[in-house]
Design brief:
Layout (H helix, E strand, L loop, with lengths): L9 H10 L4 E2 L2 H6 L13 E3 L4 H14 L3 E4 L14 E4 L7 E5 L4 E4 L5 H11 L4 E2 L12 H7 L6 H4 L6 E7 L5 E4 L4 E3 L5 H20 L1 H7 L23 H5 L8 E8 L1 E2 L3 E9 L2 H5 L2 H5 L5 E6 H11 L12 E9 L2 H18 L4 E5 L2 H12 L1 H4 L23 H14 L4 E6 L4 E6 L6 H20 L11 H4 L9 H14 L50 H6 L18 H6 L6 H14 L3 H5 L2 H7 L8 H4 L6 H12 L8 H4 L3 H8 L3 H8 L2 H9 L8 E2 L6 H11 L45 E4 L2 H6 L1 H12 L5 E4 L6 H5 L3 H15 L7 E3 L2 H14 L3 H9 E3 H10 L13 E4 L3 H7 L3 H9 L3 E4 L17 H8 L3 H5 L8 E2 L3 H10 L5 E2 L1 H5 L18 E2 L1
Parallel strand pairs: 2-4, 3-4, 20-21, 20-22, 22-23, 24-25, 24-26, 26-27
Antiparallel strand pairs: 1-2, 5-6, 6-11, 7-12, 8-9, 8-11, 9-10, 13-15, 13-16, 14-15, 14-17, 17-18, 19-28
Helix pairs in contact: 1-3, 7-19, 16-17, 22-24, 31-33, 35-37, 36-37, 36-39, 38-40
């Protein structure tokens, strides 16, 4: 049996690793990042190793074996059962061991390293085979889960009805045992990876002999107790060792959760990609009724049958806008049915027949075929984000994994779900359900209270009862996530003592020292040990931001709002994906967990747990380090399924961290930009002359800025006023009334007036007391200080809508102070903005600069807790979102210049996050641009970030993720739409001959000569 050695000291292990040329990272932030996966558990490791080769893995395992140090393998860290956390060394394969070594299209196999992300693998295979082949397993976490993790858990995915589990696609794989021996597991046995390695040859023979005896002793049990349903993932899959199965050791090791050996390379089978596929979406009154149609649906040989309930859909719409979910038929629960085949007409006919059959049965509410690719992608995104969306619902409630992976035979699913709902009610719990209905595997997020002793007692009682229930239905505790720490304790409810003994023997044959992933499967830790919400001190972290859930603080059971906010990350790891959405640009640039939203959130979670005092926590160097490369892009606030808003947490942390200590110079040079612009506007010629000379680089360096990036030219203080005056004076509605500041206290509001500057009152009719209509054009600090011509264009566009326009510039959103954590000043500026703009009307406030619009819409009510702030925030629109709204109401723009045939669009990240990902696309649709090339990603400048000397390199790497490639399309001549000022600066940095256009310039009804859609008519507005 397993005999665990007493561990040596960390210094002894580090010495052995160092002697072998292996670096172990034992930094505070690194250990925090790897204390968590996507489960309910937290186990603090000794350190993390990032191996580059199988030899590195073998050397690490030998050192750990000699010192009695446990080892846990890890890929994307998306395990929901706690099987990717451990107390010793964590091996992260995703950073370096992530390559394809060979691909044989004729033989239908690929040779791949364990750290390769599943979606990347499929993408590469499809690219190399012209779309003919792919890798079939596609779990919802496929954009960050790796091959090694899929093998360890025996992951399945949305199309498992057709393609089964990962182990169904194993040909053979190379592995390293706990003592450092290199072996290869095959479909017929095991051999030494290097046939000249005498020790490995002997070890292979010993393993073969031991496993053959194990099979002979358990022939009956392996045949009757294992492999009884499609998704019987719990326990070891020892039925594959049976003679009639060919002694398939490779498949027997699939799903062993890293407890037997460590995979370092795998040969996996490939499948032909269907020529045609079609999604059928069917609505039902609830998930039980949906499940009752599964047998009928399976008769049509679907590739996938997935289900979700309405709580997930409602949360997606609340977080990302109504248009984030399109194409759903009526219902409260839905099935996604993927049909495929060689002939599109045949697939369509099959879809029509299926819908007709389901309608005749009478359970469905509504159904439709979804031919549109955009709608299909939208619907699948809801399903794939289910784990995150269901954990932090739009109602403010929380739900957690723990019993999220049970499985039964598909024909028993409906009865099982009906009984399961009753069990939830019996324990006072609610479950959000989704999952692989066609395979009988349900994912359920449950409203446990894991923070209190009483709640954890309910957790234990319910889980034991749930285990008994699924076994009574002939099912498995786990259907694809593995047993891990979440279910291993309850395996005795599913298996006989004899089978459990066989499991222990199998593990001991491979790892007699018991060092590989201890605490799971055999001799497990109690399932309610190491819970991440247990032991977090109950104390108050005072914040400037109001971080209470939208539904009110009462939904979090008295938990401090800051603690609740940072605990929003549950580890699903979408921030580690390399494509789709914007989050997380810094991770995509570095590939380092510390630079992901998840990594930062986990370090913050350790801060609120481990800090001796609140004051000590706010001074955490580990937190400051992981926040360093955060661009404050806010993409995570919308892209993260749980709504983690790292930009806000960074701002809050910096406001405390730098209290009483020296800030970086850039916090003064860039953070105080609104102050400097008041000065530069008065002495513009002098400032521009200095900054355009060699002295300018010295000034930039003295301010903590990079000298490798061109700086913008400053505009005279009155320039924006002249632009807006000219625009509004040209409108037949004229300027009516004297300049004045918009304020609720002023009593009346001028109909068309430029405000917020000193000057003579214009002639016109005195204002009346009639309710104001039209829009307020807010000219922000960036527009006033750097591109006043855009203010004029925006004013002309709004005046051309036929509605009255009021212009205000006598306020600041405080964005630069927010992003640098100078929240006292930011609050004062925002309070003034609320007072200035709260005019008693509901007119939209249209902000030229999208980042300022986002600050007024989101940060204002979170920092200024007044009714006026909330009223103003509700009225704020970015320029593009306002244009999209006008267009939806029937307005058609009349630009003076010819509409370009193609436009590259760089949406500002803050606009993307706060106003919606489709904002610019909708506005351009109104303009009638035939082709829109979207640079979906952060530009890399992100306010002050890209101008800071220590961030320039990362900034340019981020630009290469989307903006730079998009700009290179069309021979580099396509106009670039970049409403954000920081985005325009990156455009000019990438191509000095082009400038980023604001949407207002494309829509400008002024003289055609005023706008050149391809290149600037003069030198770029920047300092060399």
């Amino acid at each position: 049996m397993i005999q665990t050695a007493a561990p040596a000291t960390p210094d002894t292990l580090a010495g052995r690793l160092d002697a072998a040329g292996i670096e172990i990272d034992v930094s505070e932030h690194r250990r925090a990042e790897y204390s968590y996966d996507a489960s309910n558990y937290r186990v603090r490791p000794l350190g993390v190793v990032f191996p580059r080769t199988p030899a590195d893995v073998a050397a690490t395992l030998r050192a750990c074996h000699a010192t009695g140090t446990p080892v846990t393998g890890r890929g994307g860290g998306t395990s929901m059962a706690g099987n990717a956390v451990g107390p010793g060394v964590v091996l992260d394969f995703s950073h370096h061991m992530n390559a394809i070594h060979a691909l044989d299209e004729d033989g239908l196999w690929v040779d791949v390293e364990p750290g390769m992300v599943l979606a990347t693998l499929s993408r590469e295979i499809e690219a190399r085979t012209a779309g003919r082949l792919t890798f079939a397993p596609d779990p919802s976490s496929k954009t960050r889960a790796t091959v090694g993790g899929a093998l360890g858990n025996d992951a399945c995915g949305n199309h498992s009805v057709r393609y089964g589990r990962t182990s169904d696609h194993v040909i053979e794989f190379d592995l390293i045992t706990s003592d450092g021996t290199a072996l290869t597991a095959t479909a017929t046995g095991i051999r030494a990876t290097d046939p000249h390695d005498a020790g490995a040859v002997r070890r292979a023979a010993e393993l073969t002999s031991s496993m053959e005896r194990l099979v002979q002793d358990n022939l009956a049990g392996f045949r009757t107790d294992l492999g009884q349903i499609q998704r019987q993932v719990s326990g070891y899959h020892l039925e594959h060792l049976l003679p009639e199965k060919g002694f398939n050791i490779a498949r027997a090791l699939g799903g062993s959760e890293g407890t037997c050996a460590v995979v370092v390379r795998a040969r996996m089978a490939l499948v032909h990609k269907p020529a045609s596929a079609l999604l059928v979406c069917v609505g039902y009154p609830d998930v039980v009724e949906a499940a009752r149609d599964i047998e009928t649906i399976l008769g049509f040989s679907p590739a996938a049958v997935e289900g979700i309930d309405d709580a997930i859909v409602a949360t997606m719409r609340a977080r990302r806008g109504e248009d984030s979910v399109t194409g759903l038929p009526d219902g409260k629960a839905w099935l996604y049915i993927d049909l495929d085949g060689a002939n599109p007409a045949d697939v369509q006919a099959q879809a029509d027949e299926l819908l007709a059959r389901l309608r005749s049965i009478g359970r469905m509410v509504d159904g439709r075929v979804v031919p549109d690719a955009t709608e299909r992608a939208s619907l699948w995104r809801v399903r794939e984000d289910g784990a995150g969306l269901s954990s932090r619902l739009h109602t403010g409630g929380e739900s957690w994994p723990g019993w999220e992976d049970s499985a039964v035979a598909p024909e028993r699913l409906a009865d099982y779900l009906a009984d399961f709902r009753d069990l939830l009610t019996e324990h006072g719990l609610h479950g959000v359900m989704y999952g692989h209905f066609g395979a009988g595997c349900m994912h359920v997020r449950i409203t446990y209270d894991l923070r209190s002793a009483a709640g954890r007692a309910v957790f234990r009682e319910f889980t034991a009862d749930a285990a008994r229930l699924v076994v009574s239905h002939g099912g498995s505790l786990s259907g694809e996530h593995g047993d891990g720490r979440a279910r291993s304790e309850f395996l005795p409810l599913m298996y006989s003592p004899q089978m459990l003994a066989a499991f222990e023997s199998f593990r001991a044959i491979w790892d007699p020292s018991g060092l590989l992933n201890p605490g799971v499967m055999t001799s497990p830790d109690a399932f309610d040990e190491h819970l991440l919400l247990d032991g977090v001190p109950d104390r108050q972290w005072r914040t400037s931001f109001d971080l209470s859930p939208a539904s009110g603080p009462e939904t979090v059971h008295g938990v401090d709002p800051f603690v609740h906010a940072v605990q929003g990350c549950i580890g699903v790891g979408k921030c580690r994906s390399d494509a789709g959405g914007v989050m997380c640009p810094s991770y995509r640039a570095t590939g380092d967990e510390k630079d992901s939203t998840r990594g930062r959130a986990r370090v913050l979670q350790d801060m609120v747990r481990n800090a001796a005092t609140v004051e000590e926590g706010w001074k955490s160097e580990a937190v400051r380090e992981v926040l360093d490369l955060c661009l404050s892009c806010k993409a995570c606030a919308s892209d993260c399924p749980t709504g983690v808003d790292m930009a806000t947490y960074k701002s809050e942390f910096f406001s405390h961290y730098y209290q009483g200590r020296m800030r970086p110079l850039s916090h003064f040079s860039l953070g105080w930009l609104p102050r400097w612009l008041k000065l530069t506007g008065r002495i513009t010629p002098l400032v521009n002359a200095v900054m355009g000379s060699p002295l300018g680089k010295l000034v930039a360096a003295a301010g903590g800025l990079t000298t490798r990036r061109a700086l913008p030219r400053f505009a005279p203080a009155a320039a924006w006023r002249r632009e807006v005056d000219a625009a509004l004076a040209a409108d037949p509605r004229g300027r009516t009334g004297p300049p004045r500041t918009l304020s609720a206290r002023s009593g009346t509001v001028p109909r068309v007036v430029a405000t917020g500057y000193d000057g003579d009152a214009s002639s016109g009719t005195a204002p009346t007391d009639a309710a104001p209509t039209g829009a307020v054009l807010f000219v922000d600090t960036f527009t006033k200080g750097f591109r006043p011509d855009v203010a004029g264009a925006a004013a002309r566009v709004l005046a051309g809508t036929g509605e009255p326009v009021t212009c205000s510039a006598d306020a600041c959103c405080g964005l630069t102070y927010i992003s640098t954590g100078q929240l006292g000043t930011a609050r004062k500026l925002l309070a003034h903005a609320a007072e200035t703009l709260d005019d008693g009307s509901d007119r939209p406030i249209v902000v030229v600069e999208p980042s300022c619009a986002a600050a007024l819409a989101k940060d204002l009510p979170e920092l200024v807790h007044t009714d006026a702030a909330r009223r103003v925030a509700a009225r704020v629109r970015s320029f593009a979102s306002h244009i999209a709204t006008l267009a939806a109401g029937g307005w058609t723009p009349s630009p003076a210049a010819k509409v370009p045939d193609s436009v590259v669009v760089q949406s500002h990240c803050h606009e993307y996050s706060v106003f919606g990902a489709a904002t610019q696309r909708k506005a351009l649709a109104a303009l009638g641009v035939p082709e829109v090339i979207e640079a979906t990603g952060c530009c890399g400048v992100a306010g002050n970030f890209g101008f800071e000397a220590n961030h320039y390199e990362t900034s340019m790497k981020v630009a290469e993720q989307a903006l730079a490639p998009a700009m290179r399309t069309g021979n580099g001549t396509t106009p670039v739409l970049a409403d954000g000022f920081s985005c325009t600066m990156q455009v000019q940095q990438l191509d000095g001959g082009r400038r980023g256009l604001h949407l207002a310039e494309l829509l400008d009804p002024g003289p055609a000569a005023a706008t050149n859609h391809q290149h600037s008519t003069s030198n770029p507005k920047e300092h060399p």
